[in-house]
Amino acid sequence: MLHRSGPVGRYGTAAGTGALAVLLLVGIAGSPAFTRWAATQTDPESAAAFYVRLLAWPAWRLDADGQPGGLFAADLRAVLVVVLAVGLLYLLPAAQVARVPGSVSQFFSGWAAYVLAAGLAAVLAALLGPDPSLLAALQDASTGAGYGFLTGWIIGTASLGGRA
């Protein structure tokens, strides 16, 4: 007989493991060191370099580098990606309501949460940033959703590691 604190108790929830993956992805790939390396040390004509540079999209900084609005405006997109992705991972209970329970719904729920979070973060950062405009918000939404689509599989895969 399995006890409730048995093997399942050692693992986090799907949303929790996805949230940890979001923090790691944005924290590492968005770091100043990674973004600098991706911009200078990769061949811009290769698909691998394109993907590495895409991973650095929600870049954050340690200083504002003279950007209008200061450090908060410089890091707004990265902060919003993390906050929105974590919130959506917990709000999208796909595993509980899906007709196909388990791994498939956890994977797609995590992926979808990241696509939505990145697109919405891009829109909000453009509208709340130093030079807000609807055109910039729409253009950034496209970039953010593309980033989320091409990198969200990482979050979806991480979500497989948890229980529903």
Note the overall shape: globular
Residue runs with pLDDT of under 50 for 5 or more positions: 1-10
Average residue pLDDT: 84
What is the CA–CA distance across the termini? 21 Å
Domain tally:
1
Along the chain, the helix and strand elements come as HHHHHHH
Compute the number of helices.
7
Instruction: Give the strand content.
Output: under 5%
Biggest sheet layout: none
Q: What would you call the structural class? A: mainly alpha
Tell me the quaternary state. Answer: single chain
Percentage of residues assigned to helices: 55-70%
- Rg, please? 17 Å
Number of strands: 0
Question: What does it look like?
Answer:
With 164 residues, this protein is mainly α. It is built from seven helices and no strands. Helix 1 (14-29) packs antiparallel against helix 4, helix 1 (14-29) crosses helix 7 and helix 4 runs antiparallel to helix 6. The longest helix has 26 residues, at 103-128. The protein is globular. It starts with 13 loop residues before the first helix and ends in a 5-residue tail after the last helix. Residues 1-10 have low confidence and may be disordered.
Summarize the structure.
Keywords: Membrane, Transmembrane, Transmembrane helix. With 164 residues, this protein is mostly helical.
Describe this protein with a few key phrases.
single chain, 164 residues, mainly alpha, 68% helix, globular, disordered N terminus
